[in-house]
Design goal:
Chain lengths: ~150, ~150
DNA sequence: ATAATTCCTATAAATTCATGTTGATATTCG
DNA sequence: CGAATATCAACATGAATTTATAGGAATTAT
């Protein structure tokens, strides 16, 4: 019912991939590698990375030896920014962000409900940076490996 | 990016409409009236109400003089139940509810993020009953009328 | 019987999701 | 310079899903 689009999900994974490679000197990552890592077609990644570039979350380096890198440090990129870039509005219903969308906001009994839910989510995604998520994933990975032993 | 489908939104409005008419003796409401009130086509309402009926949130009365009523009191119906009925899973991503959906949950760096967001939303919708929402809407309405004077 | 209303199935229209094609442009490296 | 590597850009296509409408069968009150 409430769904995060593939664009949002794939875009987040793309950014996490870049975050993991960030800061190793020559850190440009090519889409082909991300495609292999994340099992998402290059063509689709190309479409998804466009808004990320427009919103200056990634930088592109053209030509041989090129690729993409994060435009800022992983600790300075919030998940909310990523989701917002991938669609103008990071909200449950359009009327929450664009109040010209519907003429009945003033009297709509559900508007405040959806608005409240949106604010809740925004707060959650605002409190998570790429670094946070990478750290969480590393911990999880370590735990799994310990279990496997 | 994160979107509540029309089914979820329209279904909620449908239920709120029934809630407003609940308990007035002969309280069966026909879809035609809901259609006029909410400006949603009867045909679409018919589709939306099916899962609400299957999940025993509404009762139907067939034939002339029939219609629909809430199956329980508005204070006993939670918004989370409505959203859950309208789609099997009331979650941001399928893997959160159906762990056979993806094989990489154990190592997926984003799974826990989406799961956390889903839990947050669920908690929010769990704390809201139809009665709560109707009461909120009435207060809002009164306020608007006061302003108009 | 008739009218009202739910119920059931089909299908059209719009959007999202994903891949493919072609070719241009920029950059590195030998 | 020339060849290889990648991004950039504009489409085109097809499958899947969501959104919405339509026709008619079944049920019931009057």
């Amino acid at each position: 019912m409430i769904r995060l689009s593939t664009k949002g999900r794939y875009g987040t994974r793309l950014m996490l991939n870049l975050a993991r490679h960030y800061g190793n000197g020559n850190d440009a990552v090519i889409l082909k590698h991300i495609s292999e890592d994340e099992r998402i077609s290059i063509r689709y990644l190309e479409q998804i990375i466009i808004p990320l570039k427009i919103n200056r979350l990634v930088k592109s380096i053209r030509g041989a030896g090129g690729g993409y890198t994060l435009a800022r440090k992983p600790e300075d990129i919030k998940l909310s920014e990523i989701l917002h870039a991938l669609e103008g509005n990071c909200c449950l219903v359009e009327c929450v962000e664009d109040d010209s969308f519907c003429d009945f906001i003033e009297i709509c009994p559900t508007y405040d409900i959806w608005k409240g839910a949106t604010e809740l989510l925004k707060g959650y995604f605002d409190g998570l940076t790429l670094k946070d998520i990478v750290t969480m994933a590393e911990k999880k990975d370590k735990k799994n490996k310990a279990k496997a032993r």
